[in-house]
Amino acid sequence: MEIRPTTDEDLDVFVDTVHAAFGRFPETPVEGGGLWWSALETDRCLLALTADGRPVGTAATHSFELTLPGETAVPAPGVTAVGVLPSHRRQGVLTAMMRYQLAELRARGELLSVLLASEASIYGRFGYGPATYTAQLKVQRHEAAFAAPRARALADAPATGSDDGSGDGLGDGSGDGLGDGQDGGSFNGLGDGQDGGSFNGPVDGQDGGSFNGPVDGPVDGSGNGPGSGSVEVLRRAECGGILEEVYDRYRRTQPGALSRPHRWWALRAGQPPISREPRYIAVHRDAAGAPDGYASYSIESGTLTVDETIATDDAVFTALARFVLAHDLVSQVVFKHLPPEHPLRRQLADFRAGQVSGDMDWLWVRLLDVPRALTARGWFMDGELVLDVHDPFLGERDRYLLTVRNGKADCAPTDRKPDLSLDIRDLGSVYLGGTAPSTLVRAGHIRAHHPDAATLADTLFRAERSPHCLHWF
Predict the structure, then answer these.
(1) Which residue, 20, 164, 123, 187, is CA-closest to 362?
(2) Mean pLDDT (whole number) for 255-273
(3) Which range has highest mean pLDDT (15-29, 199-213, 284-298)?
(4) Which run of H or E residues covers position 156?
(5) How many angstroms separate the CA atoms of 385 and 453, rounded?
(6) Parallel, antiparallel, or unpaired: how do β-strands 55-68 and 72-84 relate?
(7) Span 123-137, average pLDDT
């Protein structure tokens, strides 16, 4: 068997082979692209061929950047289009391609690689571990009332209680715990046939320009008072470069986020809102009119589905969430791809109104150069940890002293006794801060050599917030 990089002339063969591996037929891309494989980089694709030259396997990588804890972006090859023809499975083709690809990535000087796993049982043996997670949140529209932020009420309350007779310590006499006289449903216009005063008019029958109203009311998730901004509804084709600009700002501050190269947007290669599938886009603009967030959505059979919500801060996300939850003529709203412990569910007046489903892994990480990877990310607590790292797929075992001071790490070989012994896949899982080392200790995958090791590792590896990846590839 031969494994070799492809050329431009091999693209059709590559596309046909990977589709055959998944039992599908290639579609013809629309003019200028429009299908996922139109973004492939032929110099980063591999073909596995039999002795007589027949293609039986494929693998490729995309050129991405990954945002690490501490808002550092590093190159991150995104492994994709991995497939073996059904006639040649379980014959070592996949293993040979993954070994070839990892060697090629190391030769290029890459410190890590990432992928989305079609099956969770496949890629662990090649050193990849699940590092970010995602879930859906479904909210019935009639249950979508928001609670008033209690932090704002506490800030306004007297330091030692209240003597205003209201009994709730809020100092407004409302007695309902909302702090602003709202009834919990009037803001978003649910159940009373009104628009709640939140968006200056109903949102039904949108045609790409019918809604341009201000976002009134307490949209600041921090509880600091009314937000200043507006939401404009556009058709996807009307957005120009707005989505690309906003996404790029977002991904540079979100641990676990991947870049979306310009060619992906230009070719419309990917899933909505990148693709050419029709979508409405709710664009949030700040007080100066600059776009700082968007929600891509569609409506079918009374369900409004949000493909992704991109926001440069929590207040913008809250404003966009209020907007879609206030949409008329829908019975429920489904938010796809929210990170674990996203605050939206706790912003609802009824915690149980947010139904979580589809909780699953998303981005998997594989470290290729452990010292460089550990020193590339930011750290938020000082400390030392000795890691005994086993990489069975590449036949390597090394011990490192990780020393963190003032947010920076040094990682060097050591002969000191280890604090933790772990597989390279488990180091990939904890690398972005989305998986606690203690969880893998309790699962029996990481060995802690003394009682304090897992707690110390949890403290060191945490990120400033949960890592999250939205990009599909």
Answers:
(1) 123
(2) 96
(3) 284-298
(4) helix 150-156
(5) 8
(6) antiparallel
(7) 98
